[in-house]
Write a structure and sequence with these properties.
The complex is a heterodimer of chains A (110) and B (116). With 110 residues, chain A is mainly β. In chain A, 0% of the residues lie in helices and 60% in strands. In chain A, a hairpin with a 2-residue loop joins strand 6 (56-59) and strand 7. Chain B is mostly beta strands and 116 residues long. The chains are: A mainly beta (110), B mainly beta (116). At the A-B interface, strand 4, strand 5, strand 9 and strand 10 of A face strand 5, strand 9 and strand 10 of B.
């Protein structure tokens, strides 16, 4: 059974810092990995999708990497801003099923 | 309307009530999903519909009854719920098919359900 773990559970950093969020998964037989952002009480916004054959994806200040063999992914956020404050979720896909981690709650302090 | 929409956004119901959640996707996708997000637990997949056919029921109690009349609409019918069913219910859609790269799932804003 696939299990996804995100560390840390919460992170608070000053504005302007670069930061890394971590995601690990137990079964490397995945089709892709998705990073999402969730604002309090809201739905999920897809940030980046990495296919199993890819090593990384970039969108603006975000860069996600995938090491399938070691069961790890990182989300790098450059030059963090207060508007980046949210919960970040990673999810791995096997067949049609997304399995989610519990998320990292990120707070960017002005 | 764009993306995935859900109604209502908030719902309060008693344990003896019957209500329905509605999801509509405007993305031309052929697969739709219901997820449950409870406090302090990861998002859990409940149901998957492919081309209007249910392809997965993730051991969900029968008090939750999904319906997918066409590839754009998905309902979740609720009856005799328990207080522990209070959660954020999220709908998602994606484009699936043989030979396609497995695609992103796009989520709606969710329905915040409170069972009294």
């Amino acid at each position: 059974k696939q299990e996804v773990t995100q560390i840390p559970a919460a992170l608070s950093v000053p504005e302007g810092e670069n930061l890394v969020l971590n995601c690990s998964f137990t079964d490397s037989a995945i089709y892709n990995l998705q990073w999402f952002r969730q604002d309090p009480g809201k739905g999920l916004t897809s940030l980046l999708l990495i296919q199993s054959s890819q090593r990384e994806q970039t969108s603006g200040r975000l860069n996600a990497s995938l090491d399938k063999s070691s069961g790890r992914s990182t989300l790098y956020i450059a030059a963090s801003q207060p508007g980046d404050s949210a919960t970040y979720l990673c999810a791995v896909r096997g067949a049609q099923k997304l399995v989610f981690g519990q998320g990292t709650r990120l707070t960017i302090n002005p | 309307e764009t993306g995935v929409t859900q109604t209502p956004r908030h719902l309060v119901m008693g344990m003896t009530n019957k209500k329905s959640l509605k999801c509509e996707q405007h993305l031309g996708h052929n697969a739709m999903y219901w997820y449950k997000q409870s406090a302090k637990k990861p998002l859990e997949l409940m149901f998957v519909y492919n081309f209007k056919e249910q392809t997965e029921n993730n051991s969900v109690p029968s008090r939750f009854s999904p319906e997918c009349p066409n590839s754009s609409h998905l309902f979740l019918h609720l009856h005799t719920l328990q207080p522990e069913d209070s959660a954020l219910y999220l709908c998602a859609s994606s484009q699936e098919g043989a030979g396609l790269t497995y695609n992103e799932q796009f989520f709606g804003p969710g329905t915040r359900l409170t069972v009294l």
